[in-house]
Specification:
By secondary structure, the chain is α/β, with parallel strands linked by helices. The chain folds into three domains: about 230 residues, Alpha-Beta Barrel (TIM Barrel); about 80 residues, PK beta-barrel domain-like (M1 Pyruvate Kinase, Domain 3, Beta Barrel); about 130 residues, Pyruvate Kinase, Chain: A, domain 1 (3-Layer(aba) Sandwich). Helix content is about 35%, strand content about 20%. The chain has 17 helices and 21 strands. The strands form four sheets. Strands 1-2-3-12-13-14-15-16 form an eight-stranded parallel barrel, surrounded by seven helices. Strands 6-5-9-8-7-11 form a six-stranded mixed beta sheet, with helices on one face. A five-stranded mixed beta sheet has the order 19-18-17-20-21, with helices on both faces. Helix 2 crosses helix 3 and helix 11 packs across helix 13. It starts with 14 loop residues before the first helix and ends with a strand. The relative contact order is 0.12.
Length: about 500
């Protein structure tokens, strides 16, 4: 046992709260907004089961975001939760401009001019905030307005600033509503000036995850990671899948990303809505095969914005996302602006627990066997064997060590039934791993010997109430310790 183990024992923390918070394996991401940003409300949400707080950079000031960040970190210092912070960049969202009298009526069959030159819109002409519009659209391509409520079709490109469209589905158009170009190959950059400014703030404040909106190709992720690396930041990147082009490049996007979000809102506008459930299932499957965390987002419990109970279809939606293997499910307006933010999280936690306790498909190692051609084949094989051992011995703990996060993500991808505990000397990973299915992370930076390390880890878990005397545990690690090699050791033992 290390002589320094005392500094890792947090006897003042609420053991039962830590154990209770770790019982569900599928994580909950909750968006912070006016309904949930107070210190009291954030703590209540954490206690209810939130694992990751999402900050939406489409709204609010940096000063407000800094207050929220400080409040979350204060919770992490005093409570046994390790809540992660996810920063969601706005991205290049296309919108209509201001309109005469605050709205205009679009009549089916009529023509309309769309311009990239700023103006107050009329029934004859409206402004759209996309300078490349005339270059990117072609005749007969569709344009959706207000999340698909209205539709127009391109008739003619008039000049370098204007296109003529025919209204195929009419309705009342309000200012600042979103615009989607589902048929067009867009040339817009992945990040706006606002995104770059927000990213500076995110890096300065050492947040855990940053989500890139409207990802279209792997280069979008590569470019963002390059900036993060140049700033010596360890923030991990989430690719938001919400455009058809992203699906055409999905394999390579998953490879380049640290995690993926299935953002069903814009996805359901850009694509036929009946395809969204199949896409969700496929993206989850591909992410699990690559050991990348995947979040399912948008309208999961939307009826609870102003109601105390969800619709039955929403309950089924959450349950199906869990059954399909999602690492996390996300709440947006429900916790940001809803009337019952804590109740929503409690309800979602109950749904997750019910599925995981009764019908969840654990131990998916049979479909995720290590691939000999993989450069990480040997360490993958150790992780695979550790999960098999844990299952065969009914282990009460599967314990891993990691410096990059890879071992944690790999162990998690097998969806082991044994509780999964990860130790790391990289402080940044402790919060980041809160997004990953089933993972409970601990900081630990001793390197005296492998025996001491494994002994310490078991004793830390014992002190926190996660294991007890007589429990079987399976450890993974690497030796020689000082070389920090990929995982190359698996050990099985009983807690003394």
């Amino acid at each position: 046992m290390s002589k320094h183990i005392g500094k890792y024992l947090h006897r003042q923390m609420d053991k039962e709260a830590g154990i209770s918070h770790s019982q569900k394996r599928t994580k909950i991401v909750a968006t912070v907004g006016p309904a949930s940003e107070s210190p009291e409300q954030l703590l209540a949400l954490a206690r209810a089961g939130v694992n990751v707080f999402r900050l939406n950079f489409s709204h609010g000031t940096h000063a407000n975001k800094k207050e929220i960040i400080d409040r979350i970190r204060s919770i992490n210092k005093s409570q046994p939760y390790n809540i992660a912070i996810l920063a969601d960049l706005q991205g290049p969202k296309l919108r209509v401009g201001d309109l005469e009298n605050g709205q205009i009526e679009l009549v089916e069959g009529n023509d309309l001019t769309i311009t990239t030159e700023k103006m107050t819109g009329t029934r004859e002409k409206v402004y759209v905030s996309y300078p490349h519009l005339t270059k990117d659209v072609k005749v007969d391509e569709r344009i959706f307005l207000d999340d698909g409520k209205m539709e127009v079709k391109v008739k003619k490109v008039l000049n370098d600033k204007e296109i003529l469209v025919n209204i195929t589905i009419g309705g009342t158009l309000l200012p600042k509503k979103g615009v989607n170009l589902p048929d067009s190959e867009l040339t817009m950059p992945a990040m706006t000036e606002k995104d770059f400014t927000d990213l500076d703030f995110i890096i300065e404040n050492n947040l855990d995850w940053v989500a890139l909106s409207f990802v279209r190709r792997p280069k979008d992720i590569i470019d963002l990671k390059k900036i993060i690396k140049e700033r010596n930041s360890k923030i991990k990147v989430i690719a938001k899948i919400e455009m058809p082009e992203a699906l055409r490049n999905i394999r390579d996007i998953i490879v380049e990303s640290d995690a993926v979000m299935v953002a069903r809102g814009d996805l359901g506008v850009e694509l036929p809505v009946e395809q969204v459930p199949i896409i969700q299932k496929e993206v989850i499957r591909k992410c699990m095969h690559r050991a990348k965390p995947v979040i399912v987002a948008t309208q999961m419990m939307e009826s609870m914005m102003d109601r105390t109970k969800p619709n039955r279809s929403e309950v089924t939606d959450v349950a199906n996302a869990v059954l399909e293997g999602a690492d996390a499910v996300m709440l947006s307006g429900e916790t940001a602006m809803g009337e019952y933010p804590t109740l929503v999280v409690e309800t979602m936690s109950k749904i997750i627990m019910e599925v995981e306790n009764n019908v969840y498909d654990y131990n998916r190692d049979d479909i995720l066997a290590p691939q000999p051609h993989s450069p990480s084949f040997l360490s993958d094989a150790i992780c695979y064997s550790a999960c098999k051992l844990a299952n065969d011995t009914h282990a009460r703990a599967l314990i891993g060590m990691t410096q990059s996060g890879y071992t944690a993500f790999m162990l998690s991808s097998y969806r082991p039934k044994a509780p999964l505990y990860i130790f790391s000397k990289e402080r940044s990973l402790i919060g980041q791993l809160s997004l990953s299915w089933g993972v409970r992370a601990f900081f630990y930076d001793e390197e005296e010997s492998l025996d001491d390390i494994l002994f310490d880890q078991i004793n830390i878990l014992k002190e926190r109430g996660f294991v007890k005397e007589g429990d079987v545990v399976v450890n993974t690690g690497s030796t020689p310790v000082e070389l920090h090699l990929p995982t190359n050791v698996v050990k099985i033992s009983k807690v003394e």
